[in-house]
Amino acid sequence: MGWLVTKYLITAAVVVAVSEAAKRSDKLGALLAALPLVTFLALVWLYVEKQPQEKIANHAWYTFWYVVPTLPMFLAFPWLLPRIGFGLTLLASAAITVVCFGLFALAVRPLGVELLP
So where does this one cross the membrane (predicted)? Predict the structure, then answer.
């Protein structure tokens, strides 16, 4: 139980640090948010918990493929925010991400990348 709490605290600290940095500097906050810090932590947690190398490698592999269709949302969000407000922009961004993910999953399937069950 102590290990789980430690993981929560460290992971939460990373998220808080990024949001605090973003308050002080848009560019620094964005740079930190763009770094794969959560992925690095997940890889470390998997390694420390003695997961097989194949599982750790698969995590990194699929993370790459799942990140790509999220990128359009980062362009849509700043464009939508002044037009429809924060809440609707979040909803629209989530919808854009879901649609992009579905289309991307279909597009990479012929390449042998199965993103959908």
Answer: 31-48, 60-80, 86-108
